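User: Structure with guanosine-5',3'-tetraphosphate, tokens only please.
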Amino acid sequence: MSSELAAPEQASASRVIAEAGRRRTFAVISHPDAGKSTLTEALALHARVITEAGAIHGKAGRRSTVSDWMDMEKARGISITSTALQFAYRSADGTDCVINLLDTPGHADFSEDTYRVLTAVDCAVMLIDAAKGLEPQTLKLFQVCRQREIPIITVINKWDRPGRDALELLDEIEGRIGLRPTPLTWPVGIAGDFHGVLDRRSGRFIRFIRTAGGATAAPEEHLDPAAAEELAGSAWLQAVEECELLTADGAGFDSPAFLACRSTPVLFTSAVLNFGVNQLLDVLVQHAPSPAAKVGRSGDLRPVDDEFSAFVFKVQAGMDAAHRDRLAYARVCSGVFRRGDIVTHAATRRPFATKYAQSVFGQQRTVLDTAWPGDVIGLVNATALRVGDTLYRGDHVEFPAIPQFSPEHFAVARAADTSRHKAFRRGITQLEQEGVIQVLRSDRRGDQAPVLAAVGPMQFEVTSHRMGGELHTPISLEHLNYSVVRRTRPEDVGFLDAQSGVEVLTRTDGALLALFSDKWRMEIIQRNHPELMLDPLIAAGP
Ligand code: G4P
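Assistant:
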């Protein structure tokens, strides 16, 4: 055994607790175009990770592209894959924190991917476009957060552009999703005329000062109410009046209600001008939860100061031409991770050497030597690791599996060149292990023509693109006319398979899935044969 793989030196429990306490691990959830990429850049800019906006998510017209790595993403200008961004931040009250921002795909077809990322965060920022309010994808992602009991900070963005009334937006949040909004800042100036915000905690005016093109962190001035009135006049007085209404309505920040997902602190920003971004970071530091004990599969709690444990929430390969390898992202749940540690892979109980750990910042990777609870480690070429797997040292722990969503689209895949069957099988298996696609098989269809199942049709595009590109095995896809799926059991297969418009296949995890052409057919069969097992799978949305 090389000295690099020697038994690790343990960190004291108090050090682990202190490091975990400094971590804030969160994701931004939003409908496409609400400004998630712009906000991510702005956050990193404020934390001085980058000096000029545009270095992380370069879209058309901005500088380089760091996280939108796939050709397809570039062509479409959407972010399909997730990235982990880590930066240090000192808040206004002098607290030193480490922020872990996990990026989530914007497109609804990748909601399963987003769901996996949300298993790895302690908090979510719900980003809303001030002109549009709650949009379908925001609602869908919000439901996932609620189900997972993830506290939510709401950010109303694009306040520099004409939009809706602030009080009306709060009503919409409360009315449609049942979260009580408790604004921490309030805009001075209507949407489209953004001067700054009234800080409801101090009563002061935080005035934002524009920089050329929003390219650098916006300076701000903190003014007392008299100076605010002098400078912003009626806009200030209106903000004061509206805040009085909020106070009278009891819309004050309530930490236990926020942590219990009953209320949401609200902030107003213009990500493109970098306005309000410092306030968001400060709220994350002051109010967002730090990593806490996690429940294992058997109901046991793994406290953060226990020995190292982590779970894989994402597996990704072929990230760019320079790194054609496979990366498993794991979120640390307890203890300290030191590169070179030999940990146990819970699924196989086999030792797993972590010599090649990296932190991934957009496309840049650096060797990662140490990680604490809340941090994300990228394990290179970890072919044994699957989404949901647990790694640990010391006492055995296995965290709950990450459920697979109910697919709604199905297609038979075949290798365009039938002599490349082995490569075809390898490629499909790889994409399946990454969670790009689910794979179903049956004796009737044979191994050369597996059925691919997806939550959204873009997953098929990604599969085709990657099979033909980096995996060098172009495929053809034949779409199948099924849209509903139920889980069944061996004794019901014969009957179901004999029905028209129904087919039973086995998913790689062993689940028997009955596919139906439409929900009416499924419902008739279910009504006429209540003895059959036809259990719904987890739906991709409400
Ligand atoms: P997404 O990741 O959520 O999909 O959104 P993204 O950041 O790409 O933002 C979508 C569009 O909204 C971009 O404009 C972006 O500049 C703009 N935007 C984001 N935040 C704000 C804001 O606070 N105020 C205003 N006025 N605009 C904002 P685009 O024209 O699509 O692209 P670009 O050429 O400006 O980059």
